[in-house]
Structure formats: structure tokens, C-alpha cells
Amino acid sequence: MTDGYINNITLNWTWGSCKFTILGKMSVKYTNGTGALAVNSLPGELSVAASPAPVNCGAPITTATKPTFKATYLTKVIGTTTIPKIVGS
Fold first, then answer.
1. The organism sits in which domain of life (predicted)?
2. Quick one: residue 52, left, alpha or beta (phi over 0 = left, psi -120 to 50 = alpha)?
């Protein structure tokens, strides 16, 4: 298992008339044997952007909001069934 992060995240989120942008980085773990990329951002790694400011989101989404993101993605080399391997030096 390899620990790391994905940096320079920009997520543009739209939910009904609510629109906002999330910026930052997300902590990840990658497992060579399965190709699983587990994203589990820690509190404070992501923030809601001030520019552009959230629109039509009300009190739940402000620039003080510190969102987190959690998901697991199974990866393959494009066009194959090959699981990518991370190899250190």
C-alpha cells in the first residue's frame, strides 16, 4: 500500500441552483495488488473557494466550510485489464 495525496484539486460543484468550487488536496492510498485508489481527504485539506464565492447555497456552504471527500476507484491501464503498479526507487 502506498500513501500519498492528489494536489491542486479544483472541483466545480452544482447542486440544483447551488454552485461552489472546492480547492485543495486529498489524501489517498493506492494498493498495487487490486488497483484500488482510496481517496479519504482529511479535515482542512479541502476548502470552499472565495472566488468564485458560493451562489444560492445558504448557510450550509460558505467559505468557512471544510468539506471532506471519500471514495474508492479501481484503476486499470487504458484499453487493458492490467492493474497499474507503483514502484519506488
1. Bacteria
2. beta
**CA distance from start to end of the chain:** 15
The pLDDT of residue 50: 94
Helical H runs in the chain?
A: none
Q: What is the mean pLDDT of each run of 10 residues along the chain (89 residues)?
A: 92 95 96 95 94 92 93 96 85
The answer to whether 38 and 26 are in contact (CB under 8 A) is no
Picking from 37, 44, 51, 43, the residue whose alpha carbon sits closest to that of residue 85 is: 37
pTM: 0.79
